[in-house]
C-alpha cells in the first residue's frame, strides 16, 4: 500500500487556499512535509465566471465552426472544471454542475464502446482481441460507476490522497481514470490506422495545431482555477511558469541531450529486438513529419511542448505525482505501439523530474526543443 502523499502549501491567496483543489500545491505530490493550513475558501468571483463563460462559448463555437473538434472538446472540459469549482465555492451552483457531472462518465463509456466496436470490426480472433474487448467492457463500466459520488470519492482519495473530495477532485479523478485505462485498447484498436490518418495534409494544418495548443492552455488555466480561485500571479506560480535563469538554460540543453540519448538507445533496442513494432512506430513518425513546412514544425513543437507540459506537468503532476502523471501522459499517445508508449512514459518521468527540480517553464522548453530538433532531423 502506498504511503499518503504530502504536499507543499501554496503561496498566499485571498482568503487562504481553497479546500480540495485538484492541484493546490506548488510543488509535487511526492515532496513537501508541510500540511496546508485550514482557512476559509476565497470568495466566488462573478466577473471571473462571466469571463470564463464568454471564453468557453467562443472557443467551443469556434472549434465547431472551424471543424476543430479537439479545441471544442477541451473548451467543454474547461467549462466543466469551472462549473465544478463554482459548485465548490457557492452552493447555488451545485445543481447546475450536478446536471453536467454525468457528461464525463457517459463520454468515457461511449468512447470505450467505440473502441470495442473498432476492435470487432477489425475481424481478428484469438486471446488478445478478446482481452481487449473485455478491457473495454470493464473500462466502460468503471467510467459509468465513477459517476456515483461514493465511488468518485474513493477514487479521488486513491489518486490524489486528498480528503474530503470536492466536485473538482471528483471530476479530475474521473478524467484520470478514463485516461489511464485508455492505453492498451486504444493502441490495439488504432494501431494500423494513425499512419493512414496522418497522410491527410489537413490533419497537421497550422489551424489544427494552433487550436489544440489554445485548448490545452485554456484547460490548464481552468483546472487550477484562474479567475476563480487564483489571480494571474498565483496561477502562474501554481502551474510552475517562471522566468528562466542562466542555470535553467544550461539544464535545458542538458535535458534535451539526455532525452535524445535515451530515445536513441531505446529506439535501437526496439529496432534490434522488436522490428515489427519498430516499423509500425516509424510509419506513424514518417507520416507525421513528411513534407512539413517550417511553420508546421514549429507549431508541432510548441503545441506538444506547451500544451502537454502545462496540463500534465504544470496542472496535474503536483497532485497526482510523477509516476501516475507520466503513465497518463503515455496512455494518451495511443498512436504508438506499447513499446513506444513505454518510451514516452520514461521520457515523461524525466520531464516530470525537470518540472519538480526546476519549473514547468524548463520542461516546456526541453519538450519543445526536443520535438522541433527531432522532427527537423528525421
Low-pLDDT stretches are 1-20, 22-38
Choose one word for the global shape.
globular
Count of DSSP E strands? 0
What's the gyration radius in Å? Answer: 20 Å
- The total number of structural domains is 1
Helical run tally? 17
- β-sheet strand percentage: under 5%
If you average the pLDDT, what whole number results?
86
Helix content: over 70%
| Biggest sheet character | none
The end-to-end distance, rounded to whole angstroms, is: 44 Å
Secondary-structure-derived class: mainly alpha
In terms of quaternary structure, what is this? single chain
Order of helices and strands: HHHHHHHHHHHHHHHHH
Descriptive terms for the model:
378 residues
Would you kindly provide a written description of the structure presented here, covering whatever features stand out?
- It contains 17 helices and no strands.
- With 378 residues, the chain is an all-alpha fold.
- The protein has one domain.
- α1 (46-65) packs antiparallel against α2 (69-89) and α12 runs antiparallel to α16.
- The radius of gyration is 20 Å and the shape is globular.
Amino acid at each position: 500500500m502506498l504511503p499518503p502523499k504530502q504536499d507543499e502549501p501554496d503561496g498566499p491567496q485571498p482568503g487562504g487556499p481553497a479546500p480540495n483543489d485538484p492541484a493546490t500545491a506548488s510543488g509535487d505530490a511526492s515532496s513537501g512535509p508541510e500540511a496546508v493550513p485550514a482557512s476559509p475558501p476565497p470568495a466566488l468571483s462573478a466577473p471571473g465566471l462571466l469571463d470564463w463563460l464568454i471564453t468557453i462559448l467562443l472557443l467551443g463555437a469556434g472549434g465547431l465552426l472551424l471543424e476543430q473538434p479537439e479545441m471544442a472538446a477541451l473548451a467543454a472540459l474547461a467549462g466543466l472544471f469551472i462549473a465544478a469549482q463554482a459548485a465548490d465555492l457557492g452552493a447555488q451552483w451545485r445543481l447546475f454542475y450536478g446536471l453536467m457531472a454525468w457528461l464525463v462518465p457517459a463520454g468515457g463509456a461511449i468512447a470505450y464502446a467505440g473502441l470495442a466496436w473498432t476492435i470487432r470490426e477489425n475481424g481478428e480472433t484469438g486471446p488478445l482481441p478478446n482481452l481487449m474487448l473485455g478491457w473495454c467492457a470493464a473500462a466502460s463500466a468503471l467510467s459509468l460507476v465513477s459517476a456515483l459520488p461514493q465511488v468518485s470519492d474513493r477514487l479521488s482519495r486513491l489518486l490524489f490522497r486528498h480528503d474530503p473530495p470536492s466536485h473538482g477532485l471528483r471530476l479530475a479523478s474521473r478524467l484520470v481514470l478514463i485516461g489511464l485505462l485508455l492505453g492498451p485498447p486504444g493502441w490495439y484498436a488504432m494501431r494500423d490506422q494513425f499512419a493512414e490518418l496522418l497522410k491527410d495534409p489537413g490533419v497537421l494544418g497550422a489551424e489544427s495545431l494552433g487550436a489544440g495548443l489554445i485548448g490545452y492552455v485554456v484547460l490548464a488555466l481552468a483546472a487550477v482555477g484562474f479567475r476563480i480561485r487564483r489571480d494571474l500571479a498565483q496561477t502562474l506560480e501554481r502551474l510552475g511558469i517562471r522566468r528562466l535563469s542562466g542555470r535553467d538554460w544550461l539544464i535545458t540543453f542538458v535535458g534535451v541531450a539526455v532525452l535524445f540519448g535515451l530515445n536513441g538507445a531505446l529506439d535501437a533496442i526496439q529496432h534490434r529486438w522488436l522490428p515489427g513494432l519498430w516499423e509500425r512506430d516509424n510509419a506513424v513518425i514518417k507520416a507525421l513529419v513528411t513534407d512539413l513546412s517550417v511553420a508546421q514544425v514549429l507549431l508541432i513543437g510548441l503545441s506538444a511542448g506547451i500544451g502537454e507540459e502545462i496540463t500534465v506537468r504544470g496542472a496535474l503532476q503536483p497532485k497526482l505525482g510523477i509516476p501516475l502523471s507520466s503513465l497518463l501522459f503515455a496512455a494518451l499517445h495511443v498512436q504508438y505501439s506499447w513499446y513506444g508508449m513505454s518510451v514516452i512514459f520514461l521520457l515523461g518521468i524525466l520531464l516530470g523530474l525537470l518540472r519538480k527540480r526546476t519549473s514547468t517553464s524548463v520542461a516546456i522548453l526541453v519538450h519543445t526543443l526536443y520535438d522541433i530538433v527531432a522532427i527537423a532531423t528525421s
